[in-house]
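Action item from last meeting closed. Structure (331 res):
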């Protein structure tokens, strides 16, 4: 188990001299019963195994999912700012909500372009997939909105869904098609549902993946080297190597599961959503399932002052669970 060590009995077993008896002769030693009964040894080993298992869990010992707030219509897109406050969307009600580190819930912005996925950059700007008019917004710390992307090659996007900002300021967003009854537009204009890259200078938008059925969740590693993209309709998640120019290479299957939203922790494990939260280690092996009491779990992020609480948007509620691990450096 990476990054953990366990000490048994304060440093190991010690030989015990019983009643001052001298060491046995070799023949007697061969038939002597062990000074530690076998059942006791088995008990110690079982406890050690249990301790390793508990430490291997990504959740904190004994932690349970708790509902923080409810009465929303459908929650989505959680993202944590530098202080640990978590912003999320109540998308059908067209509002951005804020769960503060003080445990208070407030409305951050309404209307908000029916925002979906969110992500903060290093300057404290909030990037929002504004679904109402198929745009990508940048909201500065004072709440001023700039529409940064609204089309690709002169045609309307399908509907930006999730976004991740890499360390140098370049960003990736997914553009699946989920037809909305509030749209005032014609049929799909793009020829596919794709993943896009926007350079740090915000001048060039590039389509970097066009062979997925319906890309949805997206997250990258804090070193900016690997991008994970969930193909929710294809029921698979892929990993890509991020190139210096923002393009993607080395596409490979990460796991046989699609996802709505995604996040990543300090150990490199990737969190997928849908039926609760499913956690995969960096090799793509499933290591944990966190049940959530809603029909659909939409998205997740780490937040709180120490970034050691997992916030979960699911159905009509905002949920949280205390974790053993912290969130990765860039979410």
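Sequence:
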């Amino acid at each position: 188990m990476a990054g953990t060590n366990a000490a048994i009995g304060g440093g190991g077993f010690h030989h015990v001299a019983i009643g001052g008896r001298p060491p046995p002769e070799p023949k007697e030693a061969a038939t002597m019963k062990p000074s530690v009964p076998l059942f006791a040894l088995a008990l110690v080993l079982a406890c050690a195994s249990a301790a390793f298992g508990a430490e291997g869990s990504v959740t904190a010992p004994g932690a349970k999912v708790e509902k923080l707030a409810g009465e929303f219509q459908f929650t989505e897109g959680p993202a944590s700012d530098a202080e640990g406050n978590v912003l999320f969307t109540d998308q059908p009600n067209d509002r951005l909500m804020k769960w503060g580190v003080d445990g208070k819930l407030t409305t951050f912005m309404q209307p908000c372009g029916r925002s979906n996925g969110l992500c903060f950059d290093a300057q404290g700007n909030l990037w929002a997939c504004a679904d109402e008019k198929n745009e990508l917004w940048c909201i500065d710390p004072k709440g001023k909105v700039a529409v940064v992307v609204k089309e690709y090659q002169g045609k309307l996007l399908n509907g930006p869904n999730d976004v991740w900002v890499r360390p140098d300021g370049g960003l990736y967003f997914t553009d699946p098609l989920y037809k909305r009854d509030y749209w005032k537009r014609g049929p799909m204009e793009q020829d596919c549902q794709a993943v896009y890259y926007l350079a740090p200078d915000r001048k060039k938008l590039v389509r970097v993946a066009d062979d997925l059925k319906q890309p949805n969740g997206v997250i990258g590693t804090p070193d900016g080297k690997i991008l994970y993209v969930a193909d929710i309709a294809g029921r698979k998640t892929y990993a890509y190597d991020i190139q210096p120019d923002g393009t993607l290479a080395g596409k490979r299957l990460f796991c046989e599961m699609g996802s709505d939203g995604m996040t990543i922790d300090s150990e490199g494990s990737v969190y997928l959503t849908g039926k609760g939260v499913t956690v995969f280690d960096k090799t793509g092996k499933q290591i944990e399932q966190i049940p959530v009491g809603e029909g659909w779990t939409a998205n997740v992020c780490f937040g709180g002052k120490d970034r050691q609480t997992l916030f979960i948007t699911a159905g009509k509620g905002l949920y949280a669970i205390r974790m053993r691990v912290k969130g990765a450096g860039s979410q």
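Note appended to the action item: The mean pLDDT is 86.
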